Amino acid sequence: MVDSTTRTLRVLAGHAFVLTLDANPTTGYQWMLSNPLDGRFLTLLSNEYIPPATSGLIGQGGHQQLTFQPLRPGMTSIALKYCRPWDDGDCARFSFTIVQISG
């Protein structure tokens, strides 16, 4: 079964925002863009893995943080997939975010 999440965010142009998603790179899976961003509205500033605060368990998952910069007012979307980079057909989860950017 594939897990899918949809959400709407309201953000301000010029003010970066972060999407934080559960992730565990020891499985080979990572969050990546399903479709290119609309460069008129958003840029991806960073995509980094944040390990768990307590690392007592081997293979314990953490979070992946994707930081975006909204460029101008409008509406766009961010489509993400949680896949193994070498096996694009084996995606476990999807995240779709509608972004409303105000000035």
UniProtKB/TrEMBL annotation:
Entry annotated with the keyword Ion transport: no
Keyword Glycoprotein part of the UniProt annotation: no
Keywords: Protease inhibitor, Thiol protease inhibitor
Pfam families in UniProt: Inhibitor_I42
Record-annotated Proteinase inhibitor I42 chagasin domain positions: 13-98
GO molecular function annotations of the record: cysteine-type endopeptidase inhibitor activity
PANTHER family in the record: AMOEBIASIN-1, INHIBITOR OF CYSTEINE PEPTIDASE
Protein name: Inhibitor of cysteine peptidase
Natural source organism: Brevibacillus centrosporus
